[in-house]
Amino acid sequence: MVNILGAFLPGITDGLFSTQGIMVMLLVAYGGAMWMFLTSAPKVHTIMVSDLIIAQEFYEGLLNLPVADVPLHYYYNYDQSLGSAMLDPIYTGSRGNSPVMQENTGLWYQLRKNTQLHVIGGASLGYKNSQRHVCFDHECLDDLLLRIQSRRLKYKIRSENPLNFLVKDLQNRVIEMAEAKT
């Protein structure tokens, strides 16, 4: 095969099939595979809530969002495990319950075709001790507001910029959806 190619392309085959040429081809193939992986990965919006159980009732029950699979790059904890996961727990002072060692915490929902919602705990209570859902992404809250409007739920917009609105769930609890500005 090399001889046939060499007859038509003299000089190129020597460099192409050398060790350096093969390494370059492998790097190009790897770069193409990584580009395909990263462009096909879903966009993930994260919302921090004050109560995960109430949030699950809200997103699954009231908004009827389908439960989503954890994206591959989150499943392997790629960004969180680059350094600290390799450390022995005895050096870090943790006993197996650090956030790095907990896998896939929170709730995952399909918001749109290639957009997912990751719901995690940790937010404080909001306006008049309402359940609070905080997000850093305006687009995410816009999508949720459209979903709320399409389901004909009672809501009240408190502020456009940053977006902040109140909505009631089936138990008549007030949920505050707030955009956090950085």
TrEMBL record:
<keyword id="KW-0812">Transmembrane</keyword>
<keyword id="KW-0472">Membrane</keyword>
<protein>
    <recommendedName>
        <fullName>Glyoxalase-like domain protein</fullName>
    </recommendedName>
</protein>
<feature type="transmembrane region" description="Helical">
    <location>
        <begin position="20"/>
        <end position="38"/>
    </location>
</feature>
<keyword id="KW-1133">Transmembrane helix</keyword>
<dbReference type="InterPro" id="IPR029068">
    <property type="entry name" value="Glyas_Bleomycin-R_OHBP_Dase"/>
</dbReference>
